[in-house]
């Protein structure tokens, strides 16, 4: 931007100089004409004034129109030719030729903007091409975590590649197909497509095909890896298209339309069907988009917002489930801790994650009951579980400043001998805004030997301020830094800065929301020592459901 601005200034200075030179030549030509006509400056003053005026000059300042006199000064100059000297007045050249200034500046700005867009596009392409080379170099120069942050000695035969297996996070796909041309009357469409789907998706155990009264086909594919939903959707369209070509060789891909809804176990089937119909309608309306997919979660927030239900009642009636998301050590494969996650069992929307229902629980009473319920369930689990694994809990922001909650938590410690295995997560944004009001809460947790985790960290800027928290256990990277980090050098740079600063302050740095192998490999190369996310495993109902790999 600075270079572009400097170029614009230099261009306008150059243009002004050229136009001023033009004025000087015109004035000199006037002096030459007066000399050649042998006009007397006194006797022929009127003739000279008319001649001068025709070229945009004036003999006297009063003869010039005063439209801009309040904020622009007239320029005066003496033009000479042999024995003739003319003292003339005129407006600045940039004002007289303002239309030329504006036109040329617009051309320059337009060219600069187009050039910037072109450069930006080429830079992105170059960045994509160079990414594998950058990652390879980072693998060579990455530093090992400091000794204070390293985990216990790795067990025998443990390898991070074990964690790179098939993801256990699954969705189900429900699809509706439409084709323009009918099949032969003697074809058993139902059995034909059952055979087609069975051959095309033999790796999936649970699948079904149903012929609809309208003549279309409904296909259900169960337990599809969440990271391959789009891949399976495109593959489904291809399988159906190839099957249709056997009987309708004149069909094009545009003649086969597919609507898909991906959902999880427990979702309302009526809602799934309506979403799939909507997706199919959108695909049929498009001339070029033959596949359209709507995820089941697409409507959850909207339906909750429109619903008059009080979600407080689901918690009160214990219509919920508590899951635990394991955090894996990337060197040994061991589980370092779990994060407690609550899911509401909604009567029509299935299991709702906290991000869907917490925004609809705005009262102090609701969120107090929510966190009390989670802590009591975690307490019950820890008392029944052997071992020393820690569990982290995301407290609602309102409860960090609720005295009633902290009085209740102190009371719970009388018969809770495992509270030192608890860690409470606090968003970095909330800490930075309210850290002066949190000293009492931090002292309370320190007295109880419970830990604190700073969550959603976006930069290394404020890490030094956490040094004053005696019982801080770790920091967790913001989800926005994790998603697609394998393709973003900017995100990699920020994460590397956080890890370096965290190592200086003896803060372990963890990654959350890891969904792909490339994201995980990049994070490990950068120095992240532990990670969690759907790539490793879905949240589990019992801590004992998953054990360290061996």
UniProtKB/TrEMBL annotation:
InterPro entries: Cyclic-di-GMP_PDE-like, EAL_dom, EAL_sf
Listed Pfam families: EAL (PF00563)
SUPFAM superfamilies according to UniProt: EAL domain-like
UniProt cross-references to SMART domains, sorted A to Z: EAL (SM00052)
Residues in EAL domain copies: 304-550
Protein name: EAL domain-containing protein
